[in-house]
Design goal:
The structure is a single chain. The chain is mainly alpha-helical and 73 residues long. The protein has a single domain, classed as Muramoyl-pentapeptide Carboxypeptidase, domain 1, CATH 1.10.101. Helices cover 64% and strands 0% of the residues. It is built from three helices and no strands. The longest helix is centred in the last third of the chain and has 19 residues.
Length: 73
């Protein structure tokens, strides 16, 4: 898939699900974000599409919630 199209879809999914590139330690919707999403997906046994859709969003949210919980304890 073309990079510019992945960027457009990630912007759409970000608005739909409420996530931010910072979730993947990226600064903006760009190639770096796509690379970081793919890396996250590979680590979590998801097809590395580079898109943060429903499944990737859920796993990323769980990771963030675990980090917050660890900081509180």
């Amino acid at each position: 898939m073309l990079t510019w199209l992945l960027i457009i879809f990630n912007r759409y999914f970000s608005k739909r699900y409420g996530w931010d590139p910072k979730w993947f330690r990226a600064k903006d919707f760009d190639k770096d974000l796509i690379k970081r999403i793919r890396k996250f997906q590979k680590r979590n046994n998801i097809f590395p599409s580079g898109l943060c859709g429903k499944r990737t969003y859920r796993l990323a949210l769980l990771r963030i919630l675990r980090e917050v919980k660890k900081r509180k304890h």
